[in-house]
Amino acid sequence: MHYHYYYQKYPYLNYNFRDTDGLYRMFSIPPKMLAAEFENTFSYRPKTFFDCGAATGVIVWLALRAGMDARGIDIKKYPYQFSCYDELFRNGNIQIKSILDCEPIVADIVFCNGTLTYFSEKELPKVLDKFRNSKMICAIHNTTEDVEAATANGDELTTCNKTRLIKPQNWWMDTFTKKGFNTKYAEHIRCFCAVPSHGA
Ligand SMILES: C[S@@+](CC[C@H](N)C(=O)[O-])C[C@H]1O[C@@H](n2cnc3c(N)ncnc32)[C@H](O)[C@@H]1O
User: Within 6 Å (CB) of ligand 1, which residues are found?
Assistant: First the structure.
């Protein structure tokens, strides 16, 4: 039995979604696991959650169910929406806009699943600036190492839209650090966790 690289890397949560050009599978991290990582770091439970790149709304919905005040944005409105998540778009929990057009985000957890790879190197610092007033930024995305590991596993990595930034893991750590975040890679959930170091 062959398991796609993504199944090995993110085994906890995956779901199908449909785009104009076909059916895809999204791999992600359950908000509950991100909340546990937050609690490990700060010794209290996160209250607010912001999904930067909320796509069809699954993660915002799960974060609400996990008891957090959750909202999100996405630059794109997906054409086929699960009806159970419609409400999130209608009531404004999820807005269609770019993170670059948002006010600074104030949330305990900011989740960026793949989203940071949609920007150019020049734009990325502007995105990270939006998160300076948040407590913890959780980012997952393909790195150069992922692309190599997937190829060795006989797989091709696909993304739901076009990405621009595929960089080594250390590049991401350095970039966050240079922008004034204390960054660690939480191995057990395969997630970059960055905490703004105020006054840096
Ligand atoms: C891999 S999906 C994440 C889905 C969901 N958060 C999850 O974890 O299951 C990444 C999303 O980032 C969105 N995105 C790309 N550029 C963006 C921008 N400038 N502002 C907001 N969202 C953006 C894409 O449209 C895409 O839906």
Answer: 26, 28, 51, 53-55, 58-59, 73-76, 98-100, 113-115, 118, 160-161
